[in-house]
Amino acid sequence: MARYRVGLETRERILEATRTLLAEDGIDGVTLKRITTVAEVGVGSFYNLFDSKEAAVFEVIRQALDAVDPHRGSSDGDTLAELIDAFVSFMTGPSPIARIYLQLAGLGLTDAAIAQRVLRSHRRRVQRFAAACQREDPALTDEQAREQAQTIMAALTGLGLTALIDPAFDMRAHAERLVVGGGAGSAPSADASVERSE
Amino acid sequence: MARYRVGLETRERILEATRTLLAEDGIDGVTLKRITTVAEVGVGSFYNLFDSKEAAVFEVIRQALDAVDPHRGSSDGDTLAELIDAFVSFMTGPSPIARIYLQLAGLGLTDAAIAQRVLRSHRRRVQRFAAACQREDPALTDEQAREQAQTIMAALTGLGLTALIDPAFDMRAHAERLVVGGGAGSAPSADASVERSE
DNA sequence: CAGAACTTTGAGCGCTTGCTCAAAGTTGAG
DNA sequence: CTCAACTTTGAGCAAGCGCTCAAAGTTCTG
Fold first, then answer.
1. Would you tell me which residues 160-189 of chain A have a C-beta closer than 8 angstroms to some C-beta of chain B?
2. How far apart are the C-alpha atoms of B23 and A78, rounded to whole Å?
3. Could you give the percent of chain A with pLDDT greater than 90?
4. What is the pLDDT of residues A151-173, one digit of tens each?
5. Structural domain that includes position A134
6. Which nucleotides of C are covered by protein (CB under 7 A)?
């Protein structure tokens, strides 16, 4: 839609503005007026570059979902610890994308289309985590690894949500505790819940 | 505001309609028009009973937050397992309230007022979990118990979110795995992540 | 049964929303 | 330099929003 240099730049300014507003004020806070004001662009220009407001928002969201799973395919040899560390960094880092991602998950609770997008991204990540689990313990069946990964991912998502709502929450510390005991060891021995060191 | 019997009944119908719409379509889906249509009430009647649309929504939300922590004060002797079981039941049960609660948490990411309400409720629950942790292991310091409870709560929230988005997700099974290994044993022994049975 | 207190009603107000469109301006290949 | 292709612009539209208000109806006390 944009073919001249200026057009591409304007497009970027609009996406940047949309991204900022999405992270700051949530999806409800994103209005055409605000986008065009922040991007310093006329309403008409916006519609020259995007089919609708939704199109711009979805473009930002698509980028956000991709960002959760950055180098897919390339570095497949990550350890579980590295994957978790990367996820924690993503959640607690300065980028506004994590906020968008989590809010999106919340909206997925009542919007099937959004749920589908979020789930696709989520499952892709679960698969990478499962692979890492199996790399650390080759004895695990595919199913076991997948379930383990699911638990870790879900829990990490919850930790991220808590961390972004409560600034005092130290996500990294909690994530470490989570995995040392729970994620890796799916031991069905009930004793584990009684015996504890320290 | 409502003092006659009919008025109180109307008020209940409105809250019920608001609750349903909130759970089905999320906060964005709740419009005055829809509330009054579903409740079979004129717009004017609504404003005779509530100061604003927001007031009705907040009333439902307040009830939702209370529902997460049902019998506070009364039965303080719950075991950790019981508390977790209750939370899982709340999340996976038929009530629409869990959906509202989680969506609210998502919206708390960009709305300070909502965040405050959610956090207050969350912390109250963490406190009960911490007490249960300490009951099971009196050796734990207050701080240790609180951190352990925080991890469990955050993880459970994440599991609940995943379960509500993905119907195929078995929250109870994952919650059990989570706690057997991770929640109770904050063992810093790295070995735990290597040793696993089955 | 009188009548004050409470409830119900929906047309319509003011405002915001996403979006259109015709006219004017800018870009860059030939 | 030419000129078609692309970009910019904001007034204004239709639709939807939360909400008001005066008139009519209902409830329940004394």
1. 160-166, 169, 173-174, 177-189
2. 39
3. 75
4. 999 999 999 999 999 999 999 99
5. 69-184
6. 5-12, 16-23, 26-28
